[in-house]
Every structure is written in structure tokens, then in C-alpha cells.
Amino acid sequence: MDAETRIVNLEADVAAKDAKLAEQDGKLAEQATKLAEQATKIAELAAQVAKLTELLGQNSKNSHLPPSSDGPGSGAKGKVRGKFGGRRGGQKGHRGNHRSLLLSELVDAFIDLFPPVCLGCGHVLPRTPDATACRYQQLDLRDHRHHLTEWRRHEVQCQRCGAATRAEYDHTQLPSFAFGSCLTCVVVLLTGAYHLSRRKTKKLLHELFGISVSTGAISAMEKRASLALAEAHEEAQREVQYAAVKHSDATTWLRSGKTASLWVLATTAATVYKIFDNGCRDTVRPLFGPAHGILISDRATVFSFWAMTLRQVCHAHLLRKFVGFSERDGPDGAIGCELIECVTLIFEYWHGYKDGQLTREDLRFFMQPLQRHFEQLLQRGSKCGSASISGACADILEHREALWTFVTQEGVEPTNNHAELELRDFVLWRKRSFGTRSERGDRFAERIMTVVRTARKQALDVLDFLVRSIKASLDATAAPTLLVGAAACSVLAPGGADQGRVVAGQVPLAHAAHAARRPERRHRPL
Asked: Whole-prediction pTM value?
């Protein structure tokens, strides 16, 4: 084989090898592309799994979810009872509650027991009453029967002319309804305040009092009560609108299976509920009235109509948010843990102030460096580049002016627990009855709950107030006043230089009054 042929063959071999190498390079590039696509897909799936795992692990301790949503095995731990564990019942050292004997004037029947003979000599003893007798009392129910009144329009025949005349129909003397005011109020308390269904209320009335009513009659009683309580509801709403400190929160409500929005606005003197078709800002804005006083709430954007300097953001909501951060891996979890430490220290100082161990000046002194450190941590979180926490930290920083109002303003709490507690009964009502079926049902629910809650805060007899309201409605007279005397000690005059200022001497919030003092704490600076 000559040289030219060998060269041609070698060139052909080189060309074949180049083609094979090019084919292999193409395959490698295709494999690299596939690997890159797979890596992207794996990253997306890993992020999705992490997100779903986080959602699966959410409960009332690390998110906005209510405690009623915690199911078995949710991971939300209940409060530990006692010092040494979760033992039920009264703990060691508990001061116990004992029923006191009632006054003798309140006793309906007396049974006197006398000794028959003397233990010393056996002589028969006279039945002489003893002023220092040992007393025992038993409270019971007897003769729980209804009271039925009948009106009769008689016809009388004249002895002179023989004509028969019947007493005319006088609506001022004859009843307008088959059921009296007291029975009506008992029924609406059972359905509207204690949230029994109409069928259970019907059965209860029959079994306890022998009264037979229909579910339609119960609905009619609710309608009468709702109309009678409309003015009291407006009175309570005016009270909270001009209060110096108010709490607000919202939850979902159901009307014929459709989602509505239930709102509460509460102060130390009154609580107002309102049900709206939706929770948009323009829809709920009329509930709050003029922007007076300090509003305690969460960070919902619906509250943007309220000046940030007159707000207090709930730190309990923030704590749950930070617990969610701490349960993540990497830098997110580390920042979350640091933020939890800050909030824990905030509450330690606050409880020390509430227990009288710190003065207001001490609270301000301890909180100054803590505020700076807390905001620095939020700055770190907003710039960390993590999509899961940077947005939340940035949003909290936008509410910076509303984070520390409780430090300087008397009567302001760092949490919105008051509003959340006021909503709890409504949430349980919704879970049992699936809400209401009409707007008339909404009005009844919000009015009866508003009046009952406010009357209890005013230390009024709830049943007595309801009876007086319904009688006033029937007689077309002035409705009774729900707010007792100068109960509105936290009311602000509209406008003027006092706008947003808390009136001195305001009564502390009801949920902050504890019967037993907390154990003494040792306060540590940051």
C-alpha cells in the first residue's frame, strides 16, 4: 500500500473518530442538560416538600391558627399545670374554694334537730333553740313550673234593655304575643348566649318547665329580642368607638354556607360584635368610627386606616410567627430562635411590671436596649435573602411605631388576647351550628352577644336587662341604659389635643386581672 492510500485511510479514521467524539460530546451535553433540569426539578420538589411539611406542622403555637384547630397529634402542647408536671386538679399549696353559708333570711325552710336525752345523766332534754347551732344548707330546685296568665273579655247582658255587650279589644291591656317577656329572654339567652340549638332549647323547656313551643315560635322570640336590643347595640358601639384603648380581631362566619366576616371591638367597659359580608377595609371601616384612641390588633392590612402611632401590634402573634421561623433549618431557624428570646424577655419585663415588681420607669429602662436589639434582628432577617422570612421581617419593621406603644402608654397591653378571648365563644358557636341562615340571624347573633358581654362587664343582671329592654320595646318607651353611670372611664372627647391620649386611672383590662400572683421573677438586662 502506497503512502497516499495510507494517508487517505488515516484521514478517514480521524474523521470517523472526530464524528464519534462529536456524537459523544452531544450526548454528554444532552445528559448535562437533563441533569440540570433534574436538579432544578429536585430543588423545586424539595422546596414544595419543605413548604407542605411546614404547613402540616402548623398549629396555634407557631402560626395564626386558633387553638380550636389543633387536632390530636398536632404538636401544640398545652400549658403545663403546676410546678412539677401536668397533674390535673388543684395543685399542692392551692388555697381551695369553699361555699359559704347563705343568710338565714334567704332560707325557705328550716329543719331543727334536737338531742333526745342528756349524755351526762340520761335525762330527757327540752327542745330549746340554740343561737350557736351548727348549720348545714342544701340548695335545690322544687316546683319548677310555668306561670300562665289568661285574659277574658266578658259579654254582659243589660238587665234594662236585654242587649249583650262584650268588653272591647284593648291592645294596651291584652298581650301582643303568646309568650311573655321573661320566657322570651330565657329562650334568647339559651340560643344566643349559651348557643343551644332551637331544637335542644325546645326540648329543654319541655323537660324542665313543661312548656311546649315550636321552633318557629323560638325564631319569632329571637326576632323580637333583636329589635328590642338594637339601641343597646348602638350604645355599646358608640362606647368602644370613643374609648382610649380598644382591641379588635376578626374571624370567619357562615351565612347559609357562604363565608362572611365576624368582627369584635372590645374595651374594658363594652364588647361589640358585627357581621359583614366581607372583611374588606371599606366594609368594616364604619365599625370603628372616628380614629380616636389606641387600637390593639394584629398586622392585617385592613387596619391601615388607623394611624400607626395610635396602634399596638400584638406580640403574641409575633411570637407564634417566630416559633414558625425557629422550626426551619439553617439561618432562618437561627434568626427565629433569637427573635423568640427577645419576645420572651419582653413578656418577662411586662409581667414584672404587671406584678408590681417593676415601675413604669423601670420598664422603659429595661426595654430601651431590647427594642434596639429586636429591630436589629428584624433588619438582619429582612436582608438575609430568604424568601420565607425576609418579607415577614420587613413587614414587621414597617409597623415599628406600633411595636412599643405599651411601654409608654398606661392601660395598653402588648397582646391582643382580650379580643381573641371575646371571639372564642363565637368561634365555638360557628363550629356547632355552622353560622346563621339570614341577615336577620346575623343581627340577632351580634346584638345578643354584644348585650350579654357588655352587661357582664358592667356587672348588670343580664336577664333583668333583657326583660326591661323587651318591655320597653312593647310599651314604646325609652330603652334601658346598657352602660352604668360613668362607666366609660376610658372615653376620649372627639378631636382636640387629647386625641390618642389614654385617660389616667383607666381600669386594667379584664383578662389581665389575675387572682393569684405569678412567682417572683429575677429580671435580667439584655
From this structure: 0.75
